[in-house]
Design brief:
- The chain is an alpha/beta fold.
- The strands form five sheets. A 13-stranded mixed beta sheet has the order 2-1-3-4-5-6-30-28-29-27-24-25-26, with helices on both faces. Strands 15, 16, 17, 18, 19, 20, 21, 22 and 23 form a nine-stranded mixed beta sheet that branches.
- Helix 14 packs parallel to helix 30 and helix 15 packs parallel to helix 18.
- The chain is elongated and about 110 Å long.
- The termini are far apart.
């Protein structure tokens, strides 16, 4: 096990992550693995060859990270996978998390690449985290059916300060403007298919080839074969052998024409090394090369490797003008080592085993919806609880509810009851509450305003936990203790109890007391709604939630922390007829990062059957449900319930950071295609002019308003035009992974963003790291389009159309 390199952070005495780096010291994958481990401040275990890890080596690690390429683990793909499985078996047996960085991903469909692809699938099968080094590699990784909690594209670091490198490159270009390069240099291991043969064939007269490196294992005779090939065409080729790290920058600066000719590469440390040394290499025009060229404008010179003479002409141009081989002044590239370390720290945080994080004062934050991590824990002190009971001219029911509240095993001294009267003609009588702290608040009657009444009651609530209990729903003695446990421990929690049904018509408080305390005769039980009972069972009491879990939250038996209720702004008072306000509140809570939980031990009995069985007039029932459906469609962004169309409060908010009208048009047209429930905002100084020119009411200038963001499931930020399709799939992806990184932006779930912002400062963690810890994160090379689309071609067509209209 090695300690950090000088100047890098010192690992803690109880490191969370162990980096296991396998292979020879000079191999690029090994060097990258060591660099990452040390830069993250973690312990690094160096193994010259794979073998099973020991308990002493694993120590107290909770995550083990392994850089992987099959070429370091075995001569054949099958042997490499077996060696990897043996290495990591102790990790999995101890229940630790496994993370891998994939290198040299399989490309093509040859028999060899198919065998390699099988090995790579085996490597990622048990991985909690997977890292690749380019968007091109991410495309290849997505073919492996990765299901990791964290799948990240973290580019290779550029090895030196680019400011210094560009300054040095400028001085060098000026000093050598009259020099004529006499050779072409290719950096890295010498192995087949790297492009040496093509480079030799394209060498101009008088220019020779230098291979800066040594032959890869098993190819010791390749340099001699290549030298013979060069000699037959009148050129020299020499291979330098391994160049030590200390000598490499000087060798790169002294090289003639830098060329990185490998067309099959999907991530290249040699290109980064050239650029880090201030050089501007010639690179074949591939998807990966275009990715780098977009990231580092002006840092590469691309050539068409399929066009005969293209490389030759580029080399000849550099012979005439050597300054072309140096980075232009002002070139900025990256990431540097510190940025890579931050990205890995975020990734590794997502890989940590799930655990409740302490906020202090016996309060906690949990990842995802994992309220089960607090199973068995009770608050050190019973929380102060305010029970809000909406009421309208149902005194007999209220007497039963207040009587049941006097029987709670929750301490009466830590209990407040707020009766929220919705315009009854007679002031409610609260004598049945006995010695409980009871307060009555009233509002004028103006239709069915249960949402407003609950808000009125909540405004008078003084407890840390607010429990909503309908005025005809009688709680069992253990109801409040069970229902408020999680909100007291977990301020993100919104809990819903079990509402059962009974015929309590004509019951007196005395009869109720006898039943609940002394085992008196029970009431006649009525049918419990099957859809609700089945929903709780299928979703494991809401341990498994998604964007539609709001359907299982009913305000008749609900509790949440007062701070969360305040942040949500209470119930939406635009609901002025029966039903819907609790689902909409639960949906907003979900989007705000609330932890939803069904508490079956918190039982309360509703007097009478469920609503559908209480209404005797089918026509009246349909009218009520139609009104509820219409209100929910407008106010609750649930694409599966409201269907397609465009809404004032969309489920997906798209924010464009550019304002070119054609680019906005192309991107918006793709984003709004199909049944995507989305709205688009252009956040750019020129937005107003662009939006006015487009005339599309679905596209708005400025930033999304707070009430729109409060209900949205996700926000997509795009900083460049993109053919973004398959958005519904991506929105669903954010439910399991808080952030989806894209080549041109990012998609953030509102759920992860708001919970993270709520607690990052309290926990002393950076928001990206905490978000990854709580929800994981994945990157996607590109949304899956319904059909292949060339965005550049589409933009060109749109521009031609716009030009013809102007003429």
């Amino acid at each position: 096990m090695t300690s950090p390199t000088p100047g890098s952070p010192t690992p803690t005495a109880d490191p969370a992550t162990l980096h296991v780096v396998v292979g020879p010291d000079e191999h690029g994958v090994v060097l990258h693995g060591e660099l990452v481990g040390h830069a993250c401040g973690d312990w690094v275990l160096r193994l010259p060859a794979p073998r099973p890890l020991t308990d002493d080596e694993l120590g107290t690690a909770r995550v083990v990270h392994v850089p992987w390429t099959d070429r370091l683990f075995g001569r054949r793909a099958e042997q490499a996978l077996a060696a990897f499985a043996a290495l990591t078996e102790p990790v999995l047996q101890r229940g630790l998390s496994l993370s891998v960085t994939l290198h040299d991903l399989p490309v093509g469909d040859s028999a060899l690449e198919q065998r390699r692809r099988t090995a790579y699938r085996g490597v990622v099968a048990h991985a909690t985290g997977v890292v690749v080094s380019s968007w091109r590699e991410l495309e290849l990784a997505q073919e492996l059916s990765v299901t990791a909690r964290s799948l990240r594209c973290i580019p290779l670091p550029v090895p030196s300060s680019m400011t210094d490198a560009v300054e040095d490159a400028t001085r060098r270009a000026d000093a050598t403007a009259g020099d004529r390069p006499s050779d072409v240099t290719v950096l890295g291991f010498v192995f087949p298919d790297r492009g040496y043969e093509h480079t030799i064939a394209e060498l101009p007269t008088g220019v020779d080839l230098v291979a800066l490196g040594r032959p890869s294992e098993g190819h010791d005779d390749l340099p001699e074969q290549l030298a013979e090939l060069a000699a037959r065409t009148g050129h020299l080729m020499r291979t330098t052998g391994f160049v030590a790290d200390a000598d490499l920058p000087g060798a790169l600066r002294a090289a003639g024409v830098p060329v990185a000719p490998n067309r099959r590469v999907a991530a290249s440390g040699s290109i980064a090394a050239w650029v880090g040394a201030g050089r501007r290499p010639l690179v074949p025009d591939t998807a990966y090369a275009r990715e780098l060229a977009a990231r580092w404008p002006g840092a590469l010179r691309l050539y068409d490797a399929d066009a005969p003479g293209a490389l030759r002409r580029e080399i000849e141009a550099t012979v005439v003008d050597p300054s072309l081989t140096w980075l232009p002044p002002g070139t900025r590239t990256g990431p540097d080592t510190r940025e890579v370390a931050r990205a890995y720290a975020t990734h590794l945080a997502a890989c940590l085993p799930p655990a409740a994080l302490p906020l202090g004062g016996d309060r906690w934050v949990v990842p995802d919806n994992r309220w089960d991590l607090l199973d068995g824990r009770r608050p050190d002190t019973a929380p102060t609880v305010s029970v809000v009971v909406p009421h309208h001219e149902a005194q007999a029911d209220l007497d039963l509810v207040l009587t049941a509240l006097t029987l709670q095993d929750h301490p009466a001294t830590r209990l407040q009851v707020v009766v929220a009267d919705d315009g009854s003609r007679v002031l409610p009588d609260t004598r049945a509450a006995g010695g409980l702290d009871v307060r009555v608040v009233r509002q004028q009657r103006a239709g069915f305003r249960a949402a407003a009444a609950r808000n009125l009651g909540a405004a008078a609530a003084e407890g840390h936990v607010v429990a909503f209990l309908d005025g005809d729903t009688v709680p069992e003695p253990g109801y409040l203790r069970a229902l408020t446990r999680l909100p007291a421990l977990l301020p993100d929690a919104l809990t819903v109890g079990r509402r059962r049904h009974a015929d309590l018509g004509g019951w007196s408080p005395a009869r109720l007391r006898a039943w609940l305390t002394r085992g008196g005769p029970p009431p006649r039980e009525l049918t419990e709604p099957t859809w609700l009972r089945d929903g709780y069972r299928e979703h494991r009491d809401l341990l498994d939630v998604d964007s539609r879990s709001h359907r299982y939250v009913i305000s008749a038996v609900m509790a949440l922390h007062r701070d969360l209720l305040t942040e949500l702004g209470g119930f939406d008072e635009r609901f002025s007829s029966y039903g819907g306000e609790d689902w909409q509140l639960a949906h907003r809570a979900y989007a705000a990062g609330a932890v939803l939980a069904h508490v079956p031990a918190a039982v309360a009995w509703h007097d009478g059957p469920e609503w559908g069985e209480r209404v005797s007039d089918p026509a009246a029932a349909r009218e009520v449900k139609n009104l509820e459906t219409l209100a929910l469609a407008a106010l609750l962004p649930d694409p599966k319930a409201r269907g397609g169309g465009q809404w004032d409060r969309p489920a997906l908010v798209v924010v464009l950071g550019f304002a070119d009208p054609v680019e906005v048009l192309a991107t918006s047209r793709a984003a709004l295609s199909g049944d995507t429930d989305a709205g688009i905002w252009v956040d750019h100084p020129d937005a107003a002019g662009t939006v006015a020119l487009l005339g599309d009411r679905r596209v708005t200038a400025g930033v999304p308003p707070p009430d729109v963001l409060a209900g949205a499931l996700a926000v997509l930020y795009l900083d460049a035009p993109a053919r973004v399709t398959g958005l519904s799939e991506l929105v669903e992806l954010t439910a399991a992974h808080g952030v989806v990184g894209l080549p041109t932006g990012r998609l953030e779930s509102s759920r992860s963003t708001r919970r993270t912002r709520r607690w990052a400062a309290r926990l002393g963690q950076d928001e990206p790291v905490l978000s990854a810890r709580l929800f994981g994160a994945v990157d996607r090379a590109a949304p899956r389009p319904s059909r292949p689309v060339d965005l550049a071609h589409e933009l060109a067509a749109l521009r031609r159309g716009a030009g013809s209209m102007r003429r």
